[in-house]
Structures are given as C-alpha cells and as structure tokens.
C-alpha cells in the first residue's frame, strides 16, 4: 500500500512542552525581576521572546504538517518536505522490534508512541523510529508492520523466525484477557528495589550524613541530625520509589517465539521481544543480593533497554529456586544445569594487578609529595594514601574472585564485576568479534586479556574476559568461527 499519513498532532505539544515548562518555572522564580523589567521599558525584550516562541511553534507545526509516513511493499518511508527535503527508508526485514510506549500526557489524550528498532551496530544505541499515533491507528500500524515482517520471515530458510501471530500481538497491546506467565505483586517489586540497592550509594549518603551533621553541630535551635537525614533519605528513597513506579504491575509472558513484557505506572511500556533477537542474557546480583543469594535477569537486544529511561528486565529479584524455575518458563533454550562450572581466572593475574596498583601508587605518591610541600599535615596525607592503596587492593581482589568463564557447546558464559556481580550468557553466533591482547608482563606469564563484542547499545556491547591462558582464547576463537 502507499497511503500517506502524519503523526498525531499532539507530537507538537510534546516537542515544545519542555521550553514552555522552563519559561513558566523561570517566570515564577523571577517574577519580581520581570515586573521591574516591564516597568523600566523592557517591553521590547519581552516581545522578542514572544516572537521567538511563536517562531518555534510555527516551525514545529510546519515540520508536523510536512512530514509523512508511508508503507510501500517491504519498506517504511518517512519523508519531510520542509526547507531541506529529507527521506528515510527502512527495510522491513531489518526491523528487530516494534513496541509501544505511553507517558502520562499520551495516556490522558489517548495516543501511543510507536518505537521501531533495526538491527544495526551503528544505530544500536538509539531507537531508530519514533512515531505518535492515536490508540486505534497505533494498533493498525503495528498490525500492518507485523504482517509484513511475517511475510519476510516466511521467505527465510531459518525456521526459527517463523510462526508469529499478529492476533496474539494485538491481544497483548490491548490487554484483552491476557494470562501472563509471571505477574509481580507490589510486595515482590518492593523486595526487588531493596535487594537492588547499591552499597556504594548507601556509603556515599552516609558520608554526606556525617559531614552535614558536623557542619550543623554549631547551629543553635536546629536539629542537626534531623536536617542531615534529609539528603540521605531523599538519595536512598529516590531510586526505591523510582523503580517501584517503573516496574508497577510487571508482567511477562512467553508465547511461541516471543516474550511479551508490560509494566509501568505513569509511563506504561509494552514490549514484544523475539527470542531469536536476544543477543545476551545477564544474571545480575548487587552486593546485597549476593549476600542473600537473590538473582535478577535482564536481556540484551536492540529496542529494549537502548534508552536510559527504558528497562530490559525479564525477571525481578528472586531466590535461586524461583529464578531457575522462571527462566525455564521464559527461555527454555538456555540450559542452566548444575553441571556448569565456571573456570576461575588464573591466580597469576594477581601478579599483574599488584604491578598495576604499584604503578598507580607511585604516581599518587609523587602527587602527595607535592601536596605535603604545600604545608598539609603529613599524617593526614599518609592516611589518605594508605586508604587508597588498601581500597585498590580490595577492588582488585573482588575483581579476581568474581571473574569466571565457561565454554559450552553453543554458548559462552562470563562472570564479571566488582561488588556487583554479573553473569552473561551469550550464544557464539551472537558474538560480533573478539579482541585479545597481551602486555609485557602478561606475555611473560603466558596470559592473555580478552574482550568480546555483541550487538547492543553503547556501553553494553562489550564483555571483558580477564586474564587466562592462551589456549582458552584459541578454543574460544574456534568456537566463534565454527558457529
């Protein structure tokens, strides 16, 4: 078909709302200054600002009016005929996912943001297409795209890409009597938020608490402890409340070869993830989770988790028994038997890390020497250097005990992290490339340090393997090539 259509006009308000909110807040905070400006002949400045705002509004209206979306055979075309003509063409066969988002404003007026992502390493960090439609038009648009995707996949000789139901997609979008495999209660989500707390965040706000208390000790008539609790309370509660709202009514279902994920209170998200598009699975344990043996799981795939506001969770925090049971329901393709034993990093890597920290401390010692010459008290400088040295040793030791690797028949398992532990499960065929290098010291110890790269958003595309014998990297290279 070649029908042309525009986004919902509400996209104009969404695009300019940030500017108006800023001006309103600025007006409220600087009301007296603006009043003085008006009385002193500042009308020209005010009028100039209003003209600029009018230009911005007219420009956004023009962009909306002159931008058309059309579906032509096996492509999506977005064409803009403004001052500069621009046309983007997206092949249906390259689409990795098509999902729906709703923020508070969109829920009020009944629109959806349709997000389309493509399989591309260069654009993996961003959602490629975002279109705002009314609810009915969003359903129709997604149904048409899914139908074309199915037609493209039916041409493929890869049978694992076949058999996706458009009706199941529409039921999921409309929540018509969907029976999810997993539905997390508010109690479960609160537990997840608590177990996911970062220890470094708690330590940071504890330092803020102690510092603020010391500063306020000399203030009379003010409860120093009460005031110092405010920053630490806000700092810790913010991620707790944020995640509680973000993962509200977190639900997930496995149907055929797709995962259906729905969650969110103010911003409602509905994601559909083809299993064959999942490039890695991350099992995550924060420091608190490691103590209480709790596990959460997120996935690496284009279209989910690319944006900082998005999540990529498929399992919230749970004990080992529930974790294994639920992962078998959602991803039975991933075998996590008790026979999997991660190979620890070579003990000789401790020599390399000790050498590294020695270099760092030498540089720090030179810096501290010049600091002492500025008449700082030597004992305090010495204590600071000792704390940094011991902290560095602790971090390097935690890296060592967290590292691990397993070379399976069709998948690679890597364990890494410092205080937070992550275990990545990656199919060999999903690895884009591998980088292996040596330093003069590691070469003497017959060790290599490696990294693998997968198709993912920037910052989540690399996995460091650590220091292992050269033979292990040769075996890994052969498995990547053979797959």
TrEMBL record:
It comes from the Bacteria. Keywords: Membrane, Transmembrane, Transmembrane helix. The chain crosses the membrane at residues 12-31, 43-65, 194-213, 225-245, 350-372, 378-401. Residues 64-139, 249-306, 404-452 form the YdbS-like PH domain. PANTHER family: UPF0699 TRANSMEMBRANE PROTEIN YDBS (PTHR34473), UPF0699 TRANSMEMBRANE PROTEIN YDBT (PTHR34473:SF2). This is PH domain-containing protein. It comes from Romboutsia faecis. The lineage of its organism: Bacteria, Bacillati, Bacillota, Clostridia, Peptostreptococcales.
């Amino acid at each position: 078909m070649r029908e042309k259509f525009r986004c919902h006009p509400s996209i104009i308000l969404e695009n300019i709302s940030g500017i108006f909110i800023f001006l309103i807040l600025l007006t409220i905070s600087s009301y007296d200054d603006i009043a003085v400006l008006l009385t002193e002949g500042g009308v020209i400045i005010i009028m100039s600002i209003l003209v600029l705002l009018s230009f911005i509004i007219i420009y956004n209206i023009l962009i909306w009016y002159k931008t058309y979306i059309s579906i032509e055979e096996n492509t999506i075309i977005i064409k803009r005929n403004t001052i500069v003509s621009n046309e983007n063409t997206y092949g249906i066969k390259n689409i990795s996912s098509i999902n729906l988002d709703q923020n508070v404003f969109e829920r009020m007026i009944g629109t959806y943001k349709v997000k389309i992502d493509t399989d591309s390493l260069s654009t993996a960090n961003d959602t490629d297409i975002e279109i705002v439609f009314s609810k009915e038009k969003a359903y129709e648009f997604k149904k048409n795209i899914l139908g074309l995707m199915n037609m493209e996949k039916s041409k493929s000789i890869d049978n694992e890409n076949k058999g996706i139901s458009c009706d199941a997609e529409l039921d999921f979008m409309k929540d018509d009597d969907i029976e999810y495999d997993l539905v997390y209660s508010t109690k479960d989500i609160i537990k997840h938020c608590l177990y996911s707390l970062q220890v470094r965040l708690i330590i940071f706000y504890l330092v803020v608490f102690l510092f603020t208390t010391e500063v306020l000790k000399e203030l009379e008539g003010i409860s120093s402890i009460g005031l110092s609790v405010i920053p630490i309370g806000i700092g810790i509660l913010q991620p707790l409340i944020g995640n509680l709202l973000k993962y509200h009514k977190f639900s997930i279902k496995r149907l055929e070869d797709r995962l259906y994920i729905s969650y969110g209170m103010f911003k409602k998200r509905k994601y559909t993830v083809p299993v064959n598009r999942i490039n890695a699975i991350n099992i995550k344990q924060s420091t608190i989770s490691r103590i209480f043996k709790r596990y959460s799981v997120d996935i690496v795939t284009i279209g989910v988790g690319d944006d900082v506001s998005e999540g990529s969770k498929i399992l919230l925090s749970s004990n080992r028994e529930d974790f294994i049971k639920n992962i078998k329901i959602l991803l039975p393709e991933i075998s996590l038997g008790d026979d999997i034993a991660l190979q620890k990093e070579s003990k000789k890597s401790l020599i390399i890390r000790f050498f590294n920290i020695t270099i760092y401390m030498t540089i720090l010692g030179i810096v501290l020497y010049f600091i002492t010459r500025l008449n700082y008290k030597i004992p305090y400088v010495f204590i600071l250097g000792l704390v940094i040295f011991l902290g560095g040793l602790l971090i390097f030791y935690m890296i060592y005990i967290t590292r691990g690797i397993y070379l399976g028949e069709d998948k690679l398992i890597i364990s890494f992290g410092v205080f937070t532990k992550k275990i990545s499960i990656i199919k060999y065929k999903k690895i884009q490339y591998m980088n292996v290098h040596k330093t003069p010291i590691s070469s003497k110890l017959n060790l290599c340090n490696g990294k693998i790269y997968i198709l993912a958003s920037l910052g989540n595309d690399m996995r460091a393997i650590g220091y292992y014998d050269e033979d292990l990297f040769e075996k890994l290279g052969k498995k990547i090539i053979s797959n």
